[in-house]
Amino acid sequence: MADRSRISALRGTFDRMLVHDIKNMSFRLRLLLSNLDEHWDDPEFRKTVRDLLATSVERLENIVGRFVANENALMIKVELDVNGLLRQVVERPPRRGSRGAPVPPVTLALGSVPRIWGDSYYLGDAFGSLLENALEAAAPEGRVVVRSFARGAGQRPRAVIEFIDNGAGMSAEFLRDRLFRPFETTKPHGVGLGLATASQIVRFHRGTIRILSQPGGGTLVRLSLPGVAESA
Questions:
Q1: What is the pLDDT at residue 181?
Q2: pTM attached to this predicted model
Q3: Measured between alpha carbons, how far is 78 from 112 in angstroms, rounded to an integer?
Q4: Residues 31 and 188: beta-carbon distance below 8 Å
Q5: What is the pLDDT of residue 206?
Q6: Residue range 41-58: average pLDDT?
Q7: pLDDT at 146
Q8: Does residue 74 contact residue 112 with C-beta atoms inside 8 Å?
Q9: Radius of gyration of the chain (CA)
Q10: What is the per-residue burial (b if ≥16 Cβ within 10 Å, else e) of 148-183?
Q11: For residue 27, what pLDDT is reported?
Q12: Nearest Cα to 115, choosing from 80, 158, 140, 90?
């Protein structure tokens, strides 16, 4: 019964990931179509179109492949290099903001962290959602920092990952009552699934997530994941 309940919870998380991905792809493609005629002569715009289409196709193929290959066993944990996965997420093709503005640059500050047992697909989605939230929260001239460091040692090491933006921040009421609820968002074009789903994925990896934010003071999202013990 416990295994069945766990599989059901994982399936629910995967379904929310699917809805989140499709909503985001739909919004970006609709935005692209609305600007197609006006900006098609701009080489930079055409490059953005190619990047967006390539990313959307790759994402859809990954979703379909995941369903076909792992219909029941949804989470496959292997020993992961956290910093390597973070680099992959940050180095994905750049996106434009919700109003066509360039997204702010991302600063990587990666320290020495233990390897973890995790599913790269799920964690990659969680990291990507948190990075996307930070990029959208920061103004175009703002900044986003992704950093990692270690806590603990020996038999209980932990990998800590932080996503930091200098955006508008969130109120104490939103943090307390609405933050991790699906379909709750402070973004005008958001779908409110990214943080809720990322939180669930972190919990499935026996990790914790903490949000520090205040209006006008930006936001810090801190993940703490159990590392592989040194003697393992």
A1: 61
A2: 0.67
A3: 19
A4: no
A5: 92
A6: 80
A7: 97
A8: no
A9: 18
A10: beeeeeeeebbbbbbbbbbbbbbeeebbeeebeebe
A11: 67
A12: 80
170 Cβ neighbours under 8 A, 6+ residues apart: 179, 186, 211, 213, 214, 215, 219
Phi, psi for residue 140 in degrees, rounded to 5: -50, -35
Identify whether the C-beta of residue 223 lies closer than 8 Å to the C-beta of residue 160: yes
pLDDT value at residue 162 = 97
- Alpha carbons within 13 angstroms on the beta-carbon side of residue 56 total 17
Buried/exposed code over 86-121 (b: 16+ C-beta within 10 A; e: otherwise): beebbeeeebbbeeeeebbebeeebeebbbbebbbb
- Show Cβ contacts of residue 156 under 8 Å, excluding neighbours closer than 6 positions: 226, 229
Give the Cα separation of 21 and 128 in Å (integer). 11
User: Token pair of 158, please?
Assistant: 């932990």
Pick from 96-105, 116-125, 166-175 the range whose average pLDDT is largest: 116-125
Buried b (16+ CB within 10 A) or exposed e, 68-77: eeeeeebbee
Residue 148 · residue 162 · CB < 8 Å? yes
**DSSP per-residue letters across 48-117:** HHHHHHHHHHHHHHHHHHHHHH-SS-----EEE-HHHHHHHHHTSPP-B-TTSPBPPPEEEEE-----EE
Average of pLDDT values for 109-129? 91
Question: Can you give the pLDDT at residue 209?
Answer: 92
